[in-house]
Design a protein that fits this description.
Radius of gyration: 28 Å
Helix content: 40-55%
Oligomer: single chain
Number of helices: 32
Number of strands: 23
């Protein structure tokens, strides 16, 4: 068996195959992408199919690649001319059309060319894995399994692993580890049953929802209002997700599943309603067709039209209103919100109870058919469909005993798993024992501890097992063991406010006295989106300039203390790491960044400039190794564009190109491993005799560079790319980056540049248009170009 994967071959350049190849390339794997040969008349030649797929990848949104350069790792080919090249691959992934016979024939040819020991897997979403490999060589079957990725593979973290009885256990272990550590995936083991875990549960939920909505005469947009964020699911809810997936795909999978599960007690749910067949017949296949359950109004309007299933025509998607929903939306706790809804005598509550209770029962009845444990099901729903909580977690929130009694009273049959849970002391799918979270294990008929996988350090586990070293409303300091402390933000949106600043100050002191190193990280949706703009707006409008000035100086010194700390400080960043959050990371001795990290100094969108050292540190990084004898125009312009245009990296790799990250900073593919890898980095720095980096002087270009930057602003305004107020902000930024009105290039201290940052920031705080930008940002989450 291969001990590593340096090269891969992906067979099939459709939506999934091409994006799997792109993500393998993101992970540093050279990839051969093959598909059917193009027509002889096609200008792109025999590899036209793959060439078209590569063009689509380059234009895809969200981007398929970490950086554009990654595309170079993908080599194009076709099945007729280049299939023998798979002999050089360490892993071959089949991703052709979802047709059993087509896949079988291709795999027969693969068996002819592959080298013994090469991994082979299928990305099928539900066809029987073992049957696909029947009759192929023994070596093929020992190295064969299912690897079901989710679309888009870069951003959707789940992969279902489906081994067969003949798959070598070492192959399963290796593929699981590779998907986890190199591809950043959440790996769930599924049994070789039709549609595995994810699509079996998703299709039942979708098809049953279609039945219930017809019975209750609900509109498409009403169902989406009831099956999205309201009950802890994504905004795509039911029908936007179906349009994204493809209405034709939903129909095909439902029909296939109906055929493959003759003994399923709810098999009839998979019988598609006539309107679904009519939609596909009329080309209403979803997003790819420009129309499905929704379509955009004509004439370039942003209005979205919804399909009226009675007339099969589109109408404006009017906002739905349910009295129970209006009240429920005021409840922030998910369990409390759903409990309120299902207990209400309201059409919304009745719909949610009917769909949710049937999904509860159906899913419970699928264990142990599709998997042996409830945790795998919940992981699939959270990592594969972005649910806020898993199905059995939600059931636990609602009370298993109470809901089961209601189901019985309604004449519903409880599956064996539910009866076993009700007979247990806890009467719950999940519980807590000895400060550890547990789940009901069907095999042992008892609660079993949920263990963190090796190499994963969850803060939830730390919180359960020990008290915080220090804590306040906005942040806490934890002891991770081995001499490493962790500073966690838990303010609203992990924003930087007075409580967080106070805890940073306290943490640096505590670490210097009692720990070997410090990690700054959390497990929120994003690392940190910047400062608390409400407070800033309030102080600015009140004209409290002395207070603002003191606060800026305090924050500047606070962030400098992270660099100056005698013990190493590592920022474990991920997701949005913006404005003040980015400035904080820039000041740490090292950054360990999740692959999906979006860093940027975006203050201009709020009518401001960075003032906590962002301008200073980015200028330092872009001029590193230069002197005042060198031409400083180009590096200064680079920083000016990054900050002035509020550019945010699309990945950690891109952040490194922009120098938000240094070459010495680390990257973690699987965010679940981020805290653990940041801790390891901190330990290594401490063990290596860490010394804080000296600040030194920074070269600035003076009036010559300032003139170039201001000329650029003038030309952009003349071309109407920016507004008059953008010019005002741009001139403030140019003043900082050029070193003020110095007559010639000079070496300046960090204090000098920080004073320029503060001066510019304070002056912009007095601008009415800055207040307008901040207000708009707070209300909409989007920048205003006034």
């Amino acid at each position: 068996m291969r001990s590593e994967v340096k090269t891969a071959a992906v067979l099939g350049a459709g939506t999934m195959g091409s994006r799997i190849a792109a993500h393998l390339a993101n992970a540093g794997v050279n990839c051969l992408l093959l598909d059917l040969p193009g027509e002889a008349s096609n200008p792109a030649g025999r590899n036209a199919t793959v060439a078209a797929a590569r063009t689509t990848l380059e234009k895809s949104r969200p981007p398929a690649y970490f950086t554009p350069e990654v595309a170079r790792r993908i080599q194009a080919g076709n099945f007729s001319d280049h299939l023998e090249r798979i002999s050089a691959a360490d892993w071959i992934i089949e991703a052709v059309v979802e047709n059993f016979d087509v896949k079988r024939e291709l795999l027969r040819r693969v068996d002819k060319y592959r080298k013994p020991g090469t991994l082979v897997s299928s990305n099928t979403s539900g066809l029987p894995i073992a049957s696909l490999a029947e009759g192929l060589s023994e070596d093929f079957r020992r190295h064969w399994l299912g690897t079901h990725f989710f679309n888009p593979p870069r951003h959707m973290r789940l992969v279902e692993l489906i081994p067969t009885p003949q798959t070598d256990p070492e192959v399963v272990r290796f593929v699981a580890d590779f998907c986890d550590q190199r591809l950043g995936k959440v790996v769930v083991y599924a049994k070789d049953r039709p549609n595995f875990i994810a699509n079996r549960i998703f299709l039942f939920a979708f098809m049953h929802t279609l039945q219930v909505m017809q019975q209750h005469e609900l509109a498409v947009q009403e169902v989406d209002a009831l099956s999205g964020p309201l009950i802890g699911r994504p905004r795509m809810a039911t029908f936007r997700l179906a349009d994204f997936t493809g209405v034709d795909v939903c129909l095909f999978v439902a029909e296939t599943l109906y055929r493959l599960v003759p003994d399923d007690e709810k098999r009839d749910v998979y019988q598609p309603p006539q309107f679904l067949r009519d939609m596909v017949g009329k080309g209403m296949a979803g997003d790819k067709a420009g129309q499905g359950f929704y379509k955009k109004a004509a004439g370039g309007s942003s209005e979205r039209l919804a399909l009226d299933l009675r007339t099969m025509t589109y109408r404006p998607a009017k906002k739905s209103y349910f009295a129970a929903v209006e009240k429920a939306q005021k409840l922030s706790d998910l369990g409390e919100r759903i409990r309120f809804l299902i207990d209400s005598d309201d059409p919304a509550g009745r719909f949610i109870w009917e769909t949710l209770s049937e999904l509860f029962l159906y899913t419970a009845a699928r264990i142990p058919e599709i998997t042996d444990d409830i945790v795998s099901v919940d992981t699939v729903l959270k990592a594969g469909f972005n649910w806020q909580a898993g199905l059995f977690e939600i059931w636990t929130m609602l009370g298993v005993e109470k809901t089961a009694e209601r189901m019985r009273n309604e004449g519903k049959h409880l599956p064996p798993l539910v009866e076993q849970v009700l007979a247990s002391p806890e009467k719950s799918f999940y519980a807590e024992r000895d400060n550890r979270r547990t789940f009901f294990d069907l095999a042992s008929n008892a609660q079993k501890a949920i263990e963190d996988p090796p190499g994963v350090l969850r803060l939830d586990t730390v919180r359960r097992q020990k008290a915080a070293v220090k804590s306040n409303r906005g942040a806490s300091l934890w002891d991770l063991g081995d001499g490493v402390a962790l500073l966690e933000f838990h303010s609203k949106a992990n924003s930087l406010d007075q409580t967080v600043f106070h805890m940073i100050e306290q943490s640096v002191r505590e670490v210097e006295a009692n720990f070997a190193s410090l990690v700054i990280g959390n497990e929120g949706e994003h690392f940190c989106v910047g400062a608390n703009l409400y407070l800033l707006l309030e102080l600015s409008r009140a004209g409290k300039w002395d207070e603002l000035s003191r606060e800026i100086t305090h924050i500047q010194e606070l962030f400098r203390s992270l660099r100056r700390c005698r013990k190493p400080v590592v920022a474990a960043v991920f997701g949005q790491t913006l404005a003040g959050g980015c400035e904080l990371a820039l000041r740490c001795g090292r950054v360990q960044a999740a692959a999906e990290t979006y860093m940027g100094l975006v203050e201009t969108g709020a009518g401001l400039v960075p003032a906590a050292g962002g301008c200073t540190e980015m200028l330092r990084r872009h001029t590193a190794g230069l002197t005042i004898e060198d031409d400083l125009t180009s590096p200064t312009q680079a920083v000016f564009e990054l900050i002035g245009m509020a550019k945010v990296s699309g990945s950690a790799a891109e952040a490194r190109q922009s120098r938000y990250l240094r070459s010495s900073d680390g990257m973690t593919m699987n965010r679940d491993r981020l805290i653990a890898e940041a801790k390891q980095a901190a330990q290594a720095m401490a063990a290596g005799g860490y010394q804080p980096a000296s600040e030194g002087e920074i070269p600035v270009g003076g009036s010559g560079v300032l003139a170039v930057l201001e000329l650029g602003l003038y030309l952009m305004r003349e071309a109407e790319y920016i507004s008059d107020f953008d010019v005002v902000i741009g001139k403030k930024l140019a003043h900082i980056l050029s070193g003020g009105r110095l007559s010639q290039p000079s070496l300046v201290s960090e204090e000098y540049l920080l004073n320029l940052e503060k001066e510019a920031f304070l002056s912009l705080c007095g601008e009415a248009k800055t207040h307008q930008r901040i207000e708009h940002l707070l209300k909409t989450g989007k920048p205003l170009r006034n």
